[in-house]
Amino acid sequence: MTADTPSLPAHFDPDAIEPGLVERWVETGVGRADVSSSKPKFSLVMPPPNVTGQLHIGHALDMTLQDVVVRHKRQRGFDVLWLPGTDHASIATHFVVERELAKTGETRFTLGREAFLRRADAWRDQSAGAIQSQLRRLGCTPDWSRERFTLDPVITRAVMRVFVAMHREGLITRGTRLVNWDPKFRTAVSDLEVETREVEGHLWHIRYPLAEDPLRHIVVATTRPETLFGDQAVAVNAADERYRDLIGKLVTLPLTGRAIPIIADEHADPEQGSGAVKITPAHDFNDHAVGLRHGLVALDVMTPDGRMNDAVPEPFRGLDRFDARARAVEALEALGLIEKIEPKLIAQPFGDRSQVVLEPRITDQWFMRTDGLAAAAAKAVHSGETRFVPGNWANVFHRWMDNIEPWCISRQLWYGHQIPAWYGEDGEIFVAETAEEAGEAARAHYGRAVSLTRDPDILDTWFSSALWPFATLGWPDETPELARYYPQDLLVTGFDIIFFWVARMMMQSIHFEGPAPFRDIYIHGLVRDAQGQKMSKTKGNVIDPLELIAQYGADATRMTMMTLCGHGQDIRMSPDAVRPARLFANKLWNAARFAAFNRCFEAAVPLPAAPSNAIDAWIVAELAAVARATLAALDDYRFSDAATGLQAFVRDTFCDWYVEFSKISMNGGDAAAAAETRAVVGWCLKTILQLLNPFMPFVTEALWDGCAAGEAITAAQLPDFEALPVRAEASTQVEGVIALVTRIRSVRSELKVAPGKPVPLLVSAPSDAARALLDRFGPHIRRLANLSGIDVAGDAPEGSVRLAVGGTDYLLPLGDVVDFAKEKARLEKELAKNGKDAGSIAARLGDEAFVAKAKPDVIALNRARLVAFEAERERLVAALALL
């Protein structure tokens, strides 16, 4: 093979090799699990992205982590099932489809349920393949033949079975409670779908006159005066002496004339505002709790779309809630009941899809009791059956489980799993898996056939997602897949859905299958921008992984995320951060071309069991050590340790040192030594490609195909790294050579000796070990340090620089190539400027006013610059010491 071999082009081009390999992996079924395999199994489920979604940088991290694990496990001889799928994402799909309808002036309500569902299915069919193709472009290799969708018949059957079973057990019930309500979509939403933002608002201080003495009043403060129509009481603290005599008396509710009581409740804080608060049980979560304690009526004063209903005075009926707010304030001011208005920063809940302000609203919903389920899930983590990685997330999990509330599982949407409950004409509820079963139950109840109406609501998307670990494997049937691959060995996900998804999978899986669904749960951090800020479209700092792939390639994108993915840490990402990984791929490519040019991959040249050449023995031992460390780190999910350690070895040890050493051996006069080195170079590169393959599957497979003929890289067995020989004396000698060459190069650089200018090296009173080192590795030292010769000397010639390396003094006579006086003056000038610049930055950072006013990224930049100046000062001082 030569450097011009067509299978290994002169330059690495990701665009030329990556798409073709994606097609190959799909066609050959890379990633396909074998349920009948005798290999040990390793299984995990893919957190299902939204079917309408696009690959974002968080997805890219999450999926790359999983793909690295499954490729690593396949290398280690496991039968791996990585089961992919997508989520129907009810509210997200509604958002997309209703946005399209709005362009023609339609809504889902004017369209009707059946027509809307046809539109949603059409949208799903149109967009379903997008996220899959993007994951393939990233290099992900799940078992696509087993892909699931949360509305697939097999999943729907499992959802219906679970709902009915839990209803029969009394764990699912219907009741009237306060929920987060989205007025745009007219549905309850989960806490996960709530975005809390700080917005500028007002605090209105309103006088509520005493019913028995209208000249007296009690002042309450509110940010939502439009809800006063639903007030049922005014609360004060029993310990607040200002209002103790008013407890039990009545006030007249402004604008309504309705009398409501003054009650004592700990919710009222004497230190906050006036110490008196209005209680509106139907429109505030805290007020609702107060209302339950005192038996207050929850009066809903709004319609599902956020307008004032018929429970309010006629002038306000039909007004949008915010228009009603303005009208109420005007009316209160006209009556002289506004004491004062203050500007206030308000934490306000918005729907993450609708982008409208959410309302607490009292509605009839379906709820799931979770206390017993949560206890079982917590026990699995306490006992060690399930392990969180990093371990601190177990504490977060337990806090949530200890404080869990009933789960509102119904949504007033159409796209999703319709609740399997039917109503008789008298309101009797029949819960069954099918309409036929519900009809039979109704016939048994009424003694005759009756007409039933199905509950129009659907289940929260998280309800079906909670069944993902076992429903995707065919449950409730006892399938071979369920028997082999449940429970799963790993779940990879972000911390933001530990409660909303992970906890619910734990609860449901344990309840219906027994064992906890996961052995390990790996929690990764967020991907932030280079300044540590959370990415958002409004900030303009969002990074599109597909753009990174287009610019640098999928391998570089993957490797960058893995090197940055420290245990339990957020990732600071920028497009520029990917460039070093792209350069690393180039370096690997060029090393493979060098090996091919020198016939290092020829099968006729085997790897010696114990290389006789010290340098060859050293690199084999070094590679074995880094391989063991890499594999151990991957087994422990220490992705950054694995990626950075392996990358550093390939870049710094193999390419920068061993490849240069090998050129000398292969071009020397010893044919046997040259043959051994070629074999070692070829073996090392093949092994490096295997170790790098989970991180950089494209470039490694392309190089493997071009250089290492034989079985596919995904099927090749890793060497037994424990059995490889270690020659300690060889490693010690080679490390001594590297230390000496590095020191000489450093001096040449510091004193600006021209790179192409050979200089002599003198040895002062060398020890026997030093003589042996120079005798054995003299050619390597001369070439790599660009020396004109190596001699033993007594006295140091004038203009020499003394180096102490490994207990031996070396001299570099540089008087003929370096003007010492001029060089000293240059360094002193640079040192003075360094001190001035560093002092200026230190003074700035020491200025409390500057630190208080400056943005965090500006302070961080100045601190980084100060550290850089300090490092440069150390370098300059060391260079002056040489003179």
Automatic annotation (TrEMBL):
Residues 616-760 form the Methionyl/Valyl/Leucyl/Isoleucyl-tRNA synthetase anticodon-binding domain. InterPro entries: aa-tRNA-synth_I_CS, aa-tRNA-synth_Ia, Anticodon_Ia_Val, M/V/L/I-tRNA-synth_anticd-bd, Rossmann-like_a/b/a_fold, tRNA-bd_arm, tRNAsynth_Ia_anticodon-bd, Val-tRNA_synth_C_sf. Residues 22-574 form the Aminoacyl-tRNA synthetase class Ia domain. Belongs to the class-I aminoacyl-tRNA synthetase family. ValS type 1 subfamily. This is Valine--tRNA ligase. PANTHER family: VALINE--TRNA LIGASE, CHLOROPLASTIC_MITOCHONDRIAL 2 (PTHR11946:SF93), VALYL-TRNA SYNTHETASES (PTHR11946). ATP binds at K537. Catalyzes the attachment of valine to tRNA(Val). As ValRS can inadvertently accommodate and process structurally similar amino acids such as threonine, to avoid such errors, it has a 'posttransfer' editing activity that hydrolyzes mischarged Thr-tRNA(Val) in a tRNA-dependent manner. Monomer. GO terms for cellular component: cytosol. It comes from Lichenibacterium minor. The C-terminal coiled-coil domain is crucial for aminoacylation activity. One of its GO terms (molecular function) is ATP binding. Its EC number is 6.1.1.9.
